[in-house]
Amino acid sequence: MATFRQLYVNFFTGVGVATLSLFLFGLALRFGYHAEIAPRSWSRPRGILKNVLKAPFGITWMFWSWKQTYPNLMAGIPGTGTRQGGWAGPLLKVDLDGIIMIKYHVLLSKVALVATILCLVVILPVNMTAKCDVELLGIGTCEHILHNLTDFERTTIANIPPLEYNGTHAAFGSRPFLNEFWVRNISSRYFVIALVAWVIYWYICRE
Length: 207
What we know:
The protein is mainly α. It has helices spanning 4-30, 34-37, 48-52, 57-67, 70-75, 96-128, 134-137, 139-147, 187-206; strands at residues 164-165, 168-169. It has two domains: 4-92, no CATH class; 109-206, no CATH class. A two-stranded antiparallel sheet has the order 1-2. Strand 1 (164-165) and strand 2 (168-169) form a beta hairpin.
């Protein structure tokens, strides 16, 4: 079962790999290995990427990319020409397939940002503040739910007591669920999670 300790290892490993990759990318630009980074620039002047990006190259390329517009990408990037050090001749352009791919990644970034905010601000507190009501569910049910949860699982939906347990309704024995539609401190949490999911789905379709 996942624990925060395992997540910390993965997180810091990922940060280390990303930092090393950006550093090596910056070195490659610094020493002119542009053809290995952008094969389309092989027959163009050696310094065209430096015409566009400024040091430190491993970081500035991200900010430069964010400022680009789709018309600019389709018209050609100034400084990437075939003559006079890149300032004259045909420019490097992005075709329609490339534009669609970029727009797709922009969509993924927006959805990831919205989902992250909603999950941290809404779903995480809903999961972590869930308590197992002994009077409602019984001691045995609560001990079974909480006994094997890791510190990470206590931040997930696993920390919310189930509405059914061993095939029967957790709060009302063998009575059908429809007879008791709302279970205090449990049903509302599931509805909030479902609502957040619908908000994310709506945002994806809107974008």
